[in-house]
Amino acid sequence: MSAAYEDRLRAFVGREIHPLRPGQDPVNVPMIRHWVEAMEDDNPIYLDEEAARATGRDGVVAPASMAQAWVMRGYAATAAAKGGGGPADELTDLLAEGGYTSVVATDSEFEFHRELVPGDHVAAREVVESISPEKATALGAGRFITSLRTYHDQDGEIVAVQRWRILRFRPKPKPQKPREPEERPEGTAAERPEERAPRPQPAINRDNAFWFEAARERRLLIQRCAACRTLRHPPGPCCPECGSFEWDTVRASGDAHVYSFVVNHHPRHPAFDYPLIVAVVELAEGTRLITNLVGVTPEEVEIDMPVVLDWVDAGPESSLPVFRPVAQEGQ
Ligand SMILES: [Zn+2]
To answer: What is the CATH number of the domain that holds 99?
Structure first.
């Protein structure tokens, strides 16, 4: 990096990149209700006036974690504002000029100064606090951008402070050029293991090691409670039905159907072909597992579609179960 570039970056430290802007709506009970339902937070101080007063408050309060929600603008307004040439865009452009084109949020620390109550109207502004020198990270060389977002009430008093850090990084070159779908040879990643980057390896622990060991031998096991005979997956130390720690296993027949699925387009990992079908399949025995579907296009997949077990080599030491449509069995 040239000294001139460093100077231009440093000029952003202390600069306001988002001016004080009020949220679209004041703090209100309907939004609080949606939030606590989604979070499954049944603390009564958020919705029950009497319970809130019993804690010494004047009435219901908003969950502290909603601070950000009160100043969110929604997708349409955010998309419309993007590229509008404000200081935040200038900083993004300057970082892109340095090759830092990718971004990941790394941490967020909140300080809450007072509880928000219905009727408060929150506004937020954001100032760049620091920009790190270039650091080597697992994702690629990058810079940590720390900004300070202050949340103000209708009287201008600060109600919360958020220190927010992102990593802007230069993505590492891919081990191989991603193929366009039309260039892709016949067959799945499973059938061309020699061309593939290794798959991310599963996190194996004491509770699930038996399952991966069997998978290495291409046997799909299901853990079974030795006390009540309930099957369970993923593997765990204790039966969710009866609490017993005793277990054995049964071998799955390999017959299953698609319970649910998503089609993953991004982000891309070089070990996989895209679009990648990530499915929850329900085994004939009744347990479900997360897996990939092979030998089928996203357009052809249907919920309840019968599928059958197949295997991929996921590295020199591991095999993983995948599923393909029954019609293709034996191909
Ligand atoms: Zn049990």
So the answer is: 3.10.129.10
